[in-house]
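Example record

Each entry pairs one chain with its bound ligand, zinc ion.
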Amino acid sequence: MAKRALKNNVKIGAHVSVSGGFLMALERAKEMGANCIQIFGASPVRWQALLPSLKEAKEFKSLAQKLEIRPIFLHAPYLINLASANERLAKISTQLLKRHLEIANFLGTQGVIFHIGSKGQRPQAEAEELVAKNIKEIFSLVKEGFLLIENSAGAGNLVGDTLEEIGRVIEKVANPRLGFCYDTAHGFEAGVLVDFSNDSLDSFVEKVEKLIGLERWLAIHANDSATAAFSNKDRHENIGQGYLGKEAFYKMLHHPEFRKRPFILEVPGFDDQGPDKENIDILKSLAY
Ligand SMILES: [Zn+2]
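Structure tokens for the complex follow.
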């Protein structure tokens, strides 16, 4: 009985393809046994993004409800760089992220997960100011929906590889609609969380609480890493096949604060076709 209750309250899902339409993403989720998902709201490599039709949005909302798939997040395009030293690039990035937040709202999803981007040669403090200004602008134009900053692996001049950096941007924006998504592979690669003992998980959670706020921590990207701790190299791996290993996911899935958040896979898949049922089943088997 207790075992079953434990099983039911865990959210385990994946990034799923929207190829064939948004409804197909929900069908794929159902097939693989995911009860929460992440999708692209438009092409991840294009600057254009159209709103779906009203009909498609309505059908998407009702099917998601019927299949009890929740939460649903959009992942922003990779092109976005809110910290860019190139003014035009920063501007069109802001417009594109705004557009994706509109798509997220239109589809009835919970929000958009995005990476801040690279500051280039810009001083750190200046980059953080610019990012905060751009996020504020989006919130002033789009009145609902969440934006979630995802931590990066820390390569090059990327902003947002530490909880401190993300915390400072969040503090500057000062809007309850700015949330946080923790990627376990990026955090490992950046050296944020490399030891998965209970004490280490506790101190990570305390840090999130202090620097970001637990109420803002809305999602987990559950990925193993193909590169070592502190490598700063962003390479996702299937659960149990990387440097984190199954034990790390077992520990996280049994930590009361981690367990409250949806675990969303972004792994290569055992057939290299993206997140699959096999990875979902591994997380489920570790969850209870
Ligand atoms: Zn991620």
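Confidence is low (pLDDT under 50) at residues 1-5.
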